[in-house]
Amino acid sequence: MKVVGTRDAGRAPAGRQASTPEATVGGRTVQSLERAFGLLEAIAVAEEPPSLAELSRATGLHTSTAFHLVRTLIVLGYVRQDEAKRYRVGPRLFMQAAGAFTENELVNLAMPHLRRLADDTGETAHLGVRADAGIAVIAKVEARSTVRTSERLGIIRPAHCTAIGKVLLAALPPEELDALLHAGSLAAFTANTRTDPGRVKAECAAVSASGLAVDDMEFNAELRCVAAPVRNFTQQTVAALGISGPIWRVTPEALEHLGPRVTKAAEALSRDLGGRPE
Is 243 helix (H, G, I), strand (E, B) or coil? Predict the structure, then answer.
């Protein structure tokens, strides 16, 4: 199949949607470039590394066309071929993505999701990341209620007794989690704070399995919080997104419907970062 240099924007190849105006120049797209990106996207979203035939079917491209384009992507480092002759995202794509990612960009992407979550739940929504042995809230949207939390941005908080912290701890490799929990005594902030490393580790395992963490009056005796992981394109947990509110409003019963809303918001942000909900 001969690869045509350009084509009309409205004519999409089989298996592909027509390009958006932003992807066009003078109403036309570079066909070979669009096809190459189509192959790269098909590789990135595949649950298992695809073969050449599977890529051809997924994109609607002739096998020979797909082969030549994928070979070019391999040479450039954006795709790699494993021993089973299947294709995976290459190291250069990860390098480019990592270079473009900053904390400011994370906040910019998170804010619309935080606003929707705060509006949907009526509680303060926040985004946090690891900061040394603790966590730092780097973005938040206040609840519409007159009773709000007084959380300040950038202040380091403990990880073992906050919902965001538990999510981030749960994502650590076992040996790193052990080292962190045994680096010093775990401080008690309320009567509900868990200070035994074994209990905290067991709770982190439960968080990893369920995808949700709860702070049940463990850091502040007047607040309950729930949080979920935010993952990037490598499925690495890079942040946690959650809500907090007074215990008389965020009751254990309320958490049953608030938890899924938090998960939905965290998954939406993860998709913006290239992650795939688990």
Answer: strand
Question: Per the structure, how many domains does the chain have?
Answer: 2
pLDDT digits (tens, 9 = 90+) for 176-230: 999 999 988 899 999 999 999 999 999 999 999 999 999 999 999 999 999 999 9
From the number of C-beta atoms within 10 Å of its C-beta (0-12, 13-18, 19+), residue 124 rates as buried
Residue 244 lies in a domain: yes
Flag whether the pTM goes above 0.70: no
Integer Cα distance of 91 and 62 in angstroms: 26
Give the integer Cα–Cα distance in Å for 196 and 181: 9
The count of other CB atoms within 10 Å of the CB of residue 3 is 13
Q: What is the CATH number of the domain that holds 219?
A: 3.30.450.40
What is the dihedral sign for C-alpha 206, 209, 210, 212?
A: positive
Give residue 196's region: left, alpha or beta (phi > 0; psi -120 to 50). beta
Q: Cα separation of 97 and 93, whole Å? A: 6
